[in-house]
Design a protein that fits this description.
- The complex is a heterodimer of chains A (166) and B (564).
- Chain A is 27% helix and 40% strand.
- Chain A has 166 residues and is α+β, with helices and mostly antiparallel strands.
- Chain A has two domains: 78 residues, Alpha-Beta Plaits (2-Layer Sandwich); 71 residues, ACT-like. Chain A, domain 2 (Alpha-Beta Plaits), CATH 3.30.70.1150.
- With 564 residues, chain B is α/β, with parallel strands linked by helices.
- Chain B has three domains: 166 residues, Rossmann fold (3-Layer(aba) Sandwich), CATH 3.40.50; 168 residues, TPP-binding domain (Rossmann fold, 3-Layer(aba) Sandwich); 179 residues, Rossmann fold (3-Layer(aba) Sandwich).
- In chain B, 37% of the residues lie in helices and 16% in strands.
- Chain B contains 22 helices and 20 strands.
- In chain B, strand 2, helix 2 and strand 3 form a beta-alpha-beta unit.
- Chain B is globular, with a radius of gyration of 24 Å.
- Chain B starts with a strand and ends in a 25-residue tail after the last strand.
- The chains are: A alpha+beta (166), B alpha/beta (564).
- The structure holds flavin-adenine dinucleotide, thiamine diphosphate and magnesium ion (MG).
Chain lengths: 166, 564
Amino acid sequence: MMRHTISVLVENKFGVLSRISGLFSGRGYNIESLSVNRTLDENVSIMTIVTMGDDRVVEQIIKQLRKLVNVIRVRNVSEMDHIEREMILVKVHATQRTRPDVFNIVSTFRGKTVDITNESVVIELTGANDKILAFLNVMEPYGIIEVVRTGAIAIGRGSKMTSEMK
Amino acid sequence: MMTGAQILIESLKKEGVDLIFGYPGGVLLGVYDTIYDSDITHILPRHEQGGIHAAEGYARATGKVGVCFGTSGPGATNLVTGIANAHMDSIPLVVFTGQVATSLIGGDAFQEADIIGITRPIVKHSYMLTNVEETASVIKEAFHIARTGRPGPVVIDLPKDVMAAKAKFEWPEKVNLTGYNPTVKGHLGQIKKMLRLLESAKKPVIYMGGGVVLSEANEELVKFSEITGVPVVSSFLGLGGFPGTHENFVGWLGMHGNYASNMAVSDPDFILAIGTRFSDRSTGRLDGFAPNAKIAHIDVDPASISKNVQIEVPIVGDCKAVLKQALGEIDKFNWDKNASARKDWRDQIKAWDKEHPFDYDRTADIIKPQYVVETIYKVTEGDAIICTEVGQNQMWAGQFYKFKRPHQFISSGGLGTMGYGFPAAIGAKLGCPDKEVFDIAGDGSILMNIQELTTAVQNKVAVKVAILNNRYLGMIRQWQNMFFNDRFSHCNLECQPDFVKLAEAFGAVGMRIDRKEDVENAVRESLKIKDRPVFMDFTVDRNENVFPMIPAGASVSEMLLMKK
Ligand SMILES: Cc1cc2nc3c(=O)[nH]c(=O)nc-3n(C[C@H](O)[C@H](O)[C@H](O)COP(=O)(O)OP(=O)(O)OC[C@H]3O[C@@H](n4cnc5c(N)ncnc54)[C@H](O)[C@@H]3O)c2cc1C
Ligand SMILES: Cc1ncc(C[n+]2csc(CCOP(=O)(O)OP(=O)(O)O)c2C)c(N)n1
Ligand SMILES: [Mg+2]
């Protein structure tokens, strides 16, 4: 089982999100995260889907996505030179005593503290999946109250559009 | 300016539609008012499910797109089984559903159902028409999507206000779909690679399926098989795609296919699969399916390739187009390369077939269901369109009728929809009035859309229904007999209507046949009736099982054969 990041360019039409999420649930593929956004072209949206599966499953996922009439392009960005980022907001227990340690870790990870109370802080952090996981791991002992994640987005390196890359 | 409803009907005419099946309702009254003035033939089924299966039968028999209508809410939900069936078996359909006015959508209005949501996993594509200006282009796209590539059902939801709104009718020159562009021609390099592997194979077999029927690649396939000398095995839905009497035809594989076909795919060294999706009913357990073979696969749907079985040589394209390309290259190869090994292989297959052909006890005094099918084959000289219900009747229809041409065999393969055959036969007969059309039926299945007798009587549709009446849900009884220690839970249909009187009550012809010597005569008599449906109620052996049988999840080596 490998983690794959799939970039899907779709026509911005009625029901397209449910067609894609329904495809995953109906065929038993898992979705680790899914993000949908506008692109430069207002008629087109881009989805970044992170899924787990062996090569055969991922091959089927990509073929099934391509079958959807409203899907324009599908790229398995995991197979190309790419940049992937996710942003998270984490609420962590932090008392006067532990606060300095927490701040220290946040700055090591180049995160930002965006809210603070007597018992807690909210931290904003951006990074690739491994960095996010490492950060959550280190924060764990302090007591994580809540995590909200955007899900990954990805772009290919170089001057070509991701959807045009091989 | 025209109303949306008028644009819709004009668009259907532009698409060459001359026959539609539909059932009216509140939100569709505007559309029906327009249909009232139009010269398109509209058939009123007596249940929307009957309507959509009739549209499927029509599409299957003619190769054209089937069209049906149902109103919002229950009308639309009654269409769901037919949509799922068309999706499974790749049947081109355009399905129009009524919808409440756009301003009411989401408010739980009277007869509102989110049919786009309900059908999302079982459509090739769907549209909610929200702007009257888009009516013509959406319909043109829908027909294009339904019939090209891997065919399938397209649903168009028609809100009431959009059908009443006005716009100019402009028929678009062409469709413009960025995300949809099915591949027709195959990659020549891959085709040559396939031919090279086939050339050097010693035990090759062609495994063909429904795609050959859909693309009408039968002539090309016959040529290809004759030149290369490769035997042809079909799936159940491929029947008719290769002549059943051709000497290269081995039969059909799978759970209830013949011994020779199943043996041929259990250890060949090369398989050329053409337009088939390697369904579990045809392959059996995958590790027993051609473990030592290299496989090339021609299919228009890339997702069918390597879905269940790993493929060495994928060839994405239309069966007919790719076979034409292959025939263009075929002289460059030496088809006598392994002549003697190939001959041994063909002889081996012939020997297998001799050993265990499709068979039954021909000496029995009571009517064997297989005998009924065989008699229909004989009397119709193999030329009738054969529809089936689901169950044992369906398997015997496939086993004992030999098909000549594509579109001759109409059966619910992937979904296994009881109640499909009779309305499908009505649709097939309306599409091919010059052909004899039979529904080989079970006594259980036929009751699932029996109301369509009225449709057939009203429209003088002279279909013949041959009920193989075993007073059982026979296929269920067979499984309970073989795998559940004869614990016959709820498969006994001893309480049933008098089918003869029932047919007569509807205004059709009814016959009961309980003696073997009357079977042939009854079939001949039925052919004389040209203006009404005929129900033939054959009292058959209650305890007959379908053989051979490869139990679900088993492999070819576990095939159960008829006791001799
Ligand atoms: C009770 C019961 C028992 C059954 N037993 C058996 C059995 O023993 N054996 C058996 O085989 N089946 C059996 N079936 C049927 C089975 O469930 C499947 O429906 C059937 O095997 C599918 O056949 P197929 O893959 O060839 O056709 P389809 O399901 O029609 O698939 C067609 C394939 O062709 C492709 N295609 C479509 N159009 C084109 C084109 N123009 N060019 C190229 N490719 C194209 C499609 O993409 C698809 O991959 C049984 C069904 C029932 C209800
Ligand atoms: C709508 C539907 N419900 C249930 C089934 C399960 N099923 C498959 S075959 C069968 C029995 C069919 O009985 P009958 O029509 O009498 O045919 P026979 O097998 O006796 O020829 C049943 C219940 C089905 N295929 N479709
Ligand atoms: Mg029965």
